[in-house]
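Researcher: Go.
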Amino acid sequence: MAEFTHLKADGSLHMVDVSAKGSTERKAIAKANIVFPPEIYPKVLAQDLPKGDFLACARVAGILAAKKTSELIPLCHPLPISQVQVDFKFLPESYALEITAEVKTVAQTGVEMEALTAVTVAALTVYDMCKALHKGIRIENIRLVYKSGGKSGEVVLE
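Model: Structure:
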């Protein structure tokens, strides 16, 4: 496994060489939750915000973020992304919004970082769009929930 480490013998960092790996279909799904103070949740549900359609804005931001991941995370490989899907689910019982990002590619390495970046930037965008209502909005539980493809195959984490 030494060929897949990010550290050289002298301790310096480098990008992992994936050229010997075969290209396979790969998919990753990540999620994040945004928890709103109860007093503003009705406005969030009604999507009645001063800045406008926060879900559309967050969806586009998440898609763009997935595409730019290798520019943001220093050792990530640039990948040919086949699809990015960003979806939202209101969770009224916890005054929350769940964001899910699914990213697909056919490549030599996976898209876990792209899915995680997509949900994180989408969550930050929702925060930005809603912060005028209350500063107590929390972004929580950013996590990878699924990946498939490559040597490790299918991994279900949720």
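Model: The chain has one domain: 23-149.
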